Structure formats: structure tokens, C-alpha cells
Predict the 3D structure of the following.
Amino acid sequence: MSQSIDHLLTENRRFAPSPEFAAKAVAGSDLYDAARADRLAFWGDQSRELLHWHTPFTEVLDWSTPPFAKWFPDGELNVAYNCLDRHVEEGNGDRVAIHFEGEPGDSRSVTYAELTDEVKRLANVLTDLGVGQGDRVAIYLPMIPEAIASLLAVARLGAIHSVVFGGFSADSLRSRIDDAGAKVVITADGGYRKGRASALKPAVDQALSDRGEGVQATVESVLVVRRTGQDVEWQDGRDVWYHDVVPQAAAEHEAQPFPAENPLFILYTSGTTGKPKGILHTSGGYLTQAAFTHRNVFDLHPETDVYWCTADIGWITGHSYVTYGPLANGATQVLYEGTPEFPEPGRWWDVAEKYGVTILYTAPTAVRSFMKQGREIVQKRDLSKIRLLGSVGEPINPEAWMWFREVVGGDVAPIVDTWWQTETGAIMISALPGVTETKPGSAQVPLPGVAIDVVDEKGESVGNDAGGLLVVTEPWPSMLRGIWGDPERFVDTYWKMFADKGYYFAGDGARRDEDGDIWLLGRVDDVMNVSGHRLSTAEIESSLVAHAATAEAAVVGASDETTGQAVVAFVILKESFLKSNTADGLATELRQWVGQQIGPIARPRDVYIVGELPKTRSGKIMRRLLRDVAEGREVGDTQTLADTAVMSVITAQVR
Ligand code: WTA
């Protein structure tokens, strides 16, 4: 079977960097030249420039036992020192690190000096609880400054954090605690979501009480932050209030150097099937690429910018672009606890206006939900300080890209569409603002020092104007170092497909356009085969979103007697459209629309107008479940859905 993916949509809009932006841009095209001249020397130079090494490295990469890489193997550093102490020592202690905005409206600003102080005390507390180099600490917290402090305190000790998203259940928490063998859990009584105090501590209690058969209990202490003040059960001898011990702890804590390859964190990804994988990242290479990309892709001017990444700390984006990247670069950032629409749909824009956000990094799912609500909500706020926008997590449809630029970016802010994964640790493909002429919907070019290709099933480049499989052809500094406790699964999952070439296979389909720019086409598992044509979900969804009535769309392939598979579409309509129109006849119109826009082959067999789409907690559409509905099957495992009720609503609507 050919792996090439047919190309259907053509996008001709282009946005060159403005001369004013380019004149002040952090990144220049010289970065590409330097990386091309000597890739490893380039990363070595970047690392020395961006980080403080207690013991300088003499070697950049040891790739003698692929796919197990060692970056900067003989160097030593302290990750937390790089994110905190050195900024204070360089005279920037008074700079705000975090503008925290709680969902109920409470707020506080934490300077680099204050955050450093907090992390030192917390590191002393964790030491007293028995945490040392290599020990695992599970973190189950809302989006509050203590979450960032916790990651850094663990890192400071050379220990390993495993953050579990606060929306996950006791069961998910338990399996992650057990897999990592965590010694300490850091949690809170609860956090605020959608106007209510939602509890966290009971899930920890439950996770720690119902042990599985034969599973060794490893957790010795639970450190509890008081956030909501709600009642909690207490286990003496195990549970400790954060506020009882951290302010009282010794203020002095000297950061010790650890080897570059000392593990920094485990982060579990559920993937689409199977047992969660504990993706393992280490210190020196990870921090190098997180800092490099944060600085260059977001054009960070740390003295003046106010940066806001809306991701939760429970995802990789919250690790690399809320914690390590921004803090290594001495950035000032906004941390918001709650949901975008509480107490009303404009909350995010109130936050952005209040703090004068200049750089906003978010996900296409958020952009599309704002499109659904209408541009007036955004336009009521003063967002004139915004000068750069970023997108991550899914392909951003050209129409959503245009809306983001016009409505949020005031028609001037460049957009960087950043492709990467939990496994890659940091951004791999993106425009460089001030350098790259951007194209709506395309992630565009590998970053300097990153080697990407689009290949067929034999690993041969497909060349320009063709689709295939996205691979990384050379090791990169922030690459995953393994799957916790399962080296075989690591090799099988990512390196087996192109073992002879030594390529990392990302699981995504992609296309190079005639300029060689890269367009992400969605997960290869979601590619549809209609009458022998391999069609990507991304392009048909983009076509649907380009219709004036549509805010969001998901398409899947459902088995079909004549065509093998047929395209089935699920669409959400814009509220503004529904105000003055009915949805009657719209399904037919949308079928024709796609047929005209991209061709009869892509025309959906069925179009269902729905109120919601099934999404994971990080906002990715779960097409597997829609396929079940489209094929009339019972809907499969919905555990990883953000809202498990959504599928019954959709099933009812479709019937
Ligand atoms: C998808 C998120 C298109 C892709 C950082 C990838 C994207 C998966 C983009 C990783 C993008 C991420 N354009 N698709 N800009 N960014 N993806 O591990 O399928 O949560 O493999 O990491 O998200 O998701 P993860």
C-alpha cells in the first residue's frame, strides 16, 4: 500500500515579516547558516550561550548506541539554578516571573527573587521528606505558582517529577504513581474551575488507598497546598500542609550540579490506545532546546515582553513553555488558573488586557471555540500590545489562522504554527518570526539544527509537492531518552519503522508544498482511503471551516461498500450564523462546498451538525470515537475524553 497522501487544498495567502518587526527580531537567518555549516557545533554554541554549565561539556553528542542519545554527556548543570538563581545573581531579581490570575479573580505577582526563595525552601522541605537525586515526585496541582515552584524544586534536587494533569481521575493518578514508583506526591486541597472549587486531595487519598494486588506502595509523604480552603481528610504521619513547612524552612539552598543526562521528568501520554507511556526527558539537552526555541520562535525580549502560554502544566507544553523555556530565558509570564469562559466568554481577553500580554501561545481548539462565539467578544478588549501569536497541538486550519491573525493579532501579529510532540520535548518545525514569510495553515520549516523529512514507506524522501510520513532524521537535544521502565517499547514505537535509516517516526502525515514547506495532515492512523485515494483529515476539515457557517469540523473515514471508505463529517456551527439562519439544508450545502473547494473525491457522504466534538483533555479531537458513530458501532473507550457525556449527545444527534 502506498503511504503517499493526496494533496487537495491550495493556499496562496502569504505574509512577509514587516520591516519593523524584522529589524528588532531575535532570530536571524544566520541561525540557519550556522546550523547548516556544523549542526553539532551549532547546538554546542547555543547551549553555552543560553545556559550556565557548572562543568562545561567537551562533547556535544554521543550517538554510539542509537536510539539512546547522550547530549553534552560530560557536562554538569543544575536546571533550577538556570531558571532562577542566575537571573537574581545577574541583577534581575525584581523582574516579575509570574503574574498569577486565579479564576475567582485573586491575583499576585511573583518576582524572580521571590520564586527563587520559595523554591529553595521547598527544596529543603523535600530533602527532609527524603527526596534525593533520581527519586520520583508526583505532582497533581492546579495552575498556581506553587505548581511551577514544585517542578523546579524537584529539578533542583536532581530528582524526577511526574506531573499528572489535575483533571485526571484517581485511577489515572494511581497508575502513574505506581509506574514511576513515586516517593512523594505534591497536591492541593483543590483548584477553581468553572466557578467552583473542585477537589484534588480526595483523588490522591483514593489513589493511595485502593492498592492493586501485589503493587508495592511507594508514597511516603503527601505535601498539600491550601488553595480553596475546602475540607480535606488527613492522614497523620503522611500528609503535610505546604504552608506549615515551606515558609518555615531554611532559606538557603545551594544548587548542586548534576550530569547533563540526569533524568528531569517523566510525562505520561495516553496515546490513542494502550497503557500510558512514561516519556522520559533529561536535563542539559532538553533545557537547551526549550530555551533556544522559546527565545527564537517567540521572539522573546525578556525586559519588555509579557508572555502567556495557556497550556496546563500537566501537558508537555506546560513543561517546556510555561516552566523551563520561559524561566531559563528570564521571561515575565501570565499564569491563569481557570477556564477561558468563566465567568463569561471574554475572560481570557480580560486577562490579556489586564497584564498587557505581548506574546500569546495557544491551541487551535481554543481559536475555533472563539470563532464559534464571535469576534465581538475579543474586539471589546484592548489587545493592541499583542505582537506575536503561536499555535500548537493540532493543524490550525487556514481560516482559523486568518481569524486568529485578524481578530486577536490586529492584522499585524505574525503567527508561528509550531509542530512538536511530548516525545520531541520542544518545538521542531515552525516559522521564525522576522525571518520566515508565513502561510496560513502550514507549520513550514524545521528549526535550525533540526533535521526533518517527509518520506514514503521505504524511507525515501517524497520531494516537494507530495505527501507522506513525517520523520526526524537526526537526533536532537530535547529528544525523549526512553519510555520509563520499557526500553523495548521505546525502540518499537518510534524507531522500528525506519530502523535501517535510523529515523524517528512521529506518527503524523505531512506534505511538502512546491516551496518545500511542511503541512501537517493529522495522525497517519486517521488517514482515509476513498476509492484508493489517501485523504488527510486536515485538509477536508480546513475546507469545512472555510465555510461561513462553520466554526469547527472533524472528519473520519467510515467503511463504505462502493468506495472502501467514505468521508463522514461532523461540524459545529458559528453562533453568529445560527442567529440569522437555520441549519436546514446546510448539510447538503456543505457537501457541495467541499466538492467544489477540493474536488468530488473529498465530498463527504454524510455531514452531521453537532453541538460538540469529542476531545481529549488537551483539546485534541478523538476521531476514533467518531468513526464508531459513523460506522454505527457501539462507541469505544471514552476514558480519555474531557467530557464523557459528549459521545451520547453526538450519537443521539446522529440517529
Ligand atoms: C499534533 C503537543 C499539526 C501532532 C506539543 C503531534 C500538531 C501531536 C501540531 C503531539 C501542529 C502538535 N500542527 N499537528 N502545529 N502540534 N500536533 O504530544 O499530531 O500532546 O504528533 O504534544 O499533536 O501531541 P502532544
